[in-house]
């Protein structure tokens, strides 16, 4: 979107009359948009420089929020987990650019959807994933038997 600026003289201290900018539509939002969605500090600075009145009150810019978001909004899951171990999320990450103190470059994390209990294992290589899965499954079976 283009914003039309009135013709201004270039000088260190602008000499623009208040009546040029100080009308009802000169709100903070308008100046924020005119300045290419600049930060509040910059908008206040420019408005003060040109003696424009306007307050940041109830200011919200949806364009800035969308532009600064790193992922699309998604709704939360409606699934309700009622007991532990109904669902376990697994994440494998690596290789890390820096090894841990024991030389591990990968990790695998298991997260229980119900309790949010997390098991984290450090791995030297991805080939250890199956062993970790097997060991965790054995440990969980023993725990379930003992409950
Ligand atoms: Zn904005």
Could you explain how this protein is built, in words?
- It is a single chain.
- With 147 residues, the protein is α+β, with helices and mostly antiparallel strands.
- The chain has 5 helices and 3 strands.
- It has a 3-stranded antiparallel beta sheet with strand order 1-2-3, with no helix packed on it.
- A hairpin with a 5-residue loop joins strand 2 and strand 3.
- It starts with 17 loop residues before the first helix and ends with a helix.
- The model is unreliable at 8-25 (pLDDT under 50).
- Bound molecules: zinc ion.
- Zinc ion binds at residues 32, 37, 61, 63-64.
Quick gist of this model?
The protein has 147 residues and is of the alpha+beta class.
Uncertain residue segments: 8-25
How many helices? The count is 5
Structural class: alpha+beta
Sum up the overall morphology in one term: elongated
- Indicate how many domains the architecture comprises: 2
Distance between the termini: 64 Å
* β-strand number: 3
Helix content: 25-40%
Largest sheet: 3 strands, antiparallel
Strands of the largest sheet, in order across it? 1-2-3
Assembly form of the protein = single chain
What integer value in Å does the Rg equal? 28 Å
Instruction: State the order of secondary-structure elements, H for helix, E for strand.
Output: HHHHEEEH
Give average pLDDT, whole number. Answer: 81
Beta-strand portion reads 5-15%
Bound molecules: zinc ion
């Amino acid at each position: 979107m283009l914003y039309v600026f009135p013709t201004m003289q270039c000088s260190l201290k602008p000499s623009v009359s208040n009546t040029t900018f100080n009308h009802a539509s000169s709100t903070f939002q308008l100046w924020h948009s005119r300045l290419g969605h600049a930060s509040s500090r910059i908008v206040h600075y420019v408005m003060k420089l040109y003696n424009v009145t306007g307050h940041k009150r109830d200011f919200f810019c949806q364009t800035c929020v969308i532009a600064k978001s790193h992922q699309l909004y998604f709704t939360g899951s409606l699934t309700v987990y009622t007991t532990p171990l109904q669902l376990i999320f697994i994440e494998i990450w690596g290789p890390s650019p820096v090894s841990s103190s024991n030389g591990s470059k990968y990790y695998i994390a298991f997260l229980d959807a119900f309790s949010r209990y997390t098991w984290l294992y450090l791995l030297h290589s991805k080939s250890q994933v199956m062993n970790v899965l097997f060991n965790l499954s054995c440990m969980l079976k023993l725990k379930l038997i003992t409950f």
